[in-house]
């Protein structure tokens, strides 16, 4: 036993040593392959990119005002509005007396005081009879007037917050809690919004209560909560008399909204759902270096294939996995270092690094496969751009909805946003968010490794054929001889069918990712549209996942083209998919299936409480019957050729979609 | 040292190697010759464990060819030798020595010895900046960093200039003297003849002849005689039966016959026509003739790439009549010859 462990340990040590040797050489080679000018150009590009991101970040984080002193506003120094105008970055106060609209001022604040007031030289709120803002009749004048409105609103807000008696300042407190729609089918958005508005619709205060000492500055509850107050009642003299709208002037609002981010305090009309702009922008910074990294990595992999340069490596004692691991390690290490640095710079923690790691791995894995399949650097360029766009979209777009819906967790970048917002996430959420990409990355490397051999590496086949080769290499022939029954237990046959089931099971992370992406893409559509489309899309994704390997097996001559073999591999594939699908129970842990679309996509059968055990068992195994049957149909088509496969796949998809409709109806 | 039995490799419907059996003894230089597409490279790659045979078994140095451990005993030189051009010769060779777990001191010793013998200078120059011949030498040195028992060289001298070709072939001969077993492929028969103890001739995936070069020449080539006369020999039934052909060459007539008996018949026929024999020459079969006899088509590259210009038929032009052209003529392919050892 101990000897066994020692042997394994020694083998592991040898493997690690070999990987490190290749990694060391790859690092030296990669650094030696870039001349100084290219390096300088790369650094310059990075600096420019960093500068752009930095400015963006600075704008978001530090409130850097790029619109400083854009509008000139005439206002008397004694006016109660003077302070509001001075405090607004975009406004530059000019003396009202000398202001000329359209010439030396874009807008003028005219304060009409009550007769007899202001004799002492100062005007307070009580002295104001009427306030009118006049703006020049130009677009700039209109924009200036709007800025004045916002400036006054913000000023009011600050005054209210500064009040020692917050109850007096905010007599009515509205608690907002943003929740995703979970049930019901209507013509509204599939997810998001509120439950009839009663939980905090932006204009409704049905959960309102009287303020009781809240200071109005609460940070909210978790991801999206916030507190709002209505200050329209008596917000001070500034706004009180602003409703008049005579001689071209306009009313000054009581409160204004910020450009980004949820307003947690303000009037109901100004409160918007939270949008984590700054965190998103910072999270995006994690993705930028990946694009540079995969260019270098993809080139290095393809370089091995160009002119058979990597052939001598294949006759060394190193296994393909060791070679690939060694070649990948420097890039993975670079990704880790850069990610950690960015996390350090933007205030992220370990969670950010953990979340970005599978994204980086997927970037590298997809690029590796692409570089193994590409026939030229030109093709590789398309591959890397495709990888970059697809993965950036997959990672970034769902993260936009971080504070809106759990669907956002399909992207690990959402965890980064949470991390940057200082919000805690559960282990289940981390697993849900990172596992599909992590497993997907591993499988991508596995797929590429399948063709990391002399026979495939240096051949110039189209990408689709290489893809089929990569799948077929994981399969083995299914023996067809022997009696039925006893033959099923034949070891070779079991092994062959096991490899079919395993290959199909390995597609689950990609199926999962594809389905989540479909959910994310479709969730904004009305349910009446999105649900049918989603059910068919998901059926198609799953049927392709289950049968494409079988098609590869038949096309590459691994499987004998008989109905018997087709049925056997179809059943095996369906079973493999069923078993792997059950492993996605992690979805349940996160609660995605609470969402209507989530249930349509992932729940097998919902609302089954109260059913007898036999019925439950039947329903539990119903997906097995579905997968085995549909995949057998597709396999029967696959064994006959491409056209028959396409037709059979369509048939299987329709059957599967019908089943999905049934499941949703049951729910 | 190497045993191959029932080797078969197919790619879809295409059979690259068909039912190949051969064995290579310790310390032997074994040649595989044949035209492009004959299956030589596929066979070598099967030996090197790079390609898995569809059928058949191969053992190299006592290991199955698919066993990674076998590779420790193998040095492989592919047909093309594109190297990592960012690296220097020294760093490149050290890298490969590392992969074989060769200690640095030992590796440096071996690298120096190989580079010295191959007369490779510019060891610190980037490989992208050195000539093709130099790259080939570096590739050969790479095949030796692990001090292998078996060397598999695929067209080691292909496309090199005559000087480098001679150098590479001489180095290969020396390897035999150091006890290495070398399997060597070439489509240039003269390279094989100058290096190999035994050869197999492959055509369309099959071994069509095997044995020593002399033995194969003996079996598949015939000595012919050219009888030059001042008149055209009179056609006689006896002469026709001897498969003689007569051509007019300048002011003489040349009759080619397969035996000395036939020479006598030509002499007689010339006398009947009122003339006489003015010259008789015998012609040994060239390797080209042998190959033509075996595979039914001439060797590619007959007139290129052979060291010292020995690729041309030494005899064919001796009489200045241009009969070297004959091997450029495509002829119908005869049935593959099942040669014996």
Tell me about this structure.
The complex is a heterodimer of chains A (667) and B (341). The radius of gyration of chain A is 32 Å and the shape is elongated. Chain A has 667 residues and is mainly alpha-helical. The longest helix of chain A has 31 residues. About 13% of the residues of chain A have low confidence. In chain A, strand 1, helix 3 and strand 2 form a beta-alpha-beta unit. Helices cover 59% and strands 5% of the residues of chain A. Chain A has four domains: 214 residues, no CATH class; 30 residues; 200 residues, no CATH class; 194 residues, no CATH class. Chain B has 341 residues and is an alpha/beta fold. Chain B has two domains: 217 residues, 3-Layer(aba) Sandwich (Rossmann fold); 107 residues, Alpha-Beta Plaits, CATH 3.30.70. In chain B, a hairpin with a 2-residue loop joins strand 12 and strand 13. The longest helix of chain B is centred in the middle third of the chain and has 16 residues. The radius of gyration of chain B is 24 Å and the shape is elongated. The two termini of chain B are 18 Å apart. At the A-B interface, helix 1 and helix 8 of A face helix 2 of B. Chain B: InterPro entries: AAA+_ATPase, ABC_transporter-like_ATP-bd, ABC_transporter-like_CS, ABC_transporter_ATP-binding, DrrA1/2-like_C, P-loop_NTPase. Chain B: Keywords: ATP-binding, Nucleotide-binding, Transport. Chain B: This is ABC transporter. Chain B: It comes from Halorubrum distributum JCM 9100.
Q: Remind me, CATH topology of the largest domain in chain B?
A: Rossmann fold
Multimerization status: heterodimer
Number of strands of chain A: 7
List the helices and strands of chain B in order.
EEEHEEEHHHEHEHEEHEHEEHEH
Terminal-residue CA separation of chain A: 52 Å
Using the CA coordinates, give the radius of gyration of chain A: 32 Å
Number of DSSP strand runs of chain B: 14
Largest interface: A-B, 25 and 29 residues
User: What percentage of residues of chain B falls in helices of 4 or more residues?
Assistant: 25-40%
- What is the name of the CATH class of the largest domain in chain B? Alpha Beta
CATH superfamily of the largest domain in chain B: P-loop containing nucleotide triphosphate hydrolases
| Strand residue content of chain B | 15-25%
Low-confidence spans of chain A: pLDDT under 50, at least 5 residues? 180-263
Mean pLDDT of chain B: 78
What's the total helix number of chain B?
A: 10
- Tell me the number of helical segments of chain A per DSSP (H or I, 4 or more residues long): 23
Query: Regions of chain B with pLDDT < 50 over 5+ consecutive residues?
Result: 301-341
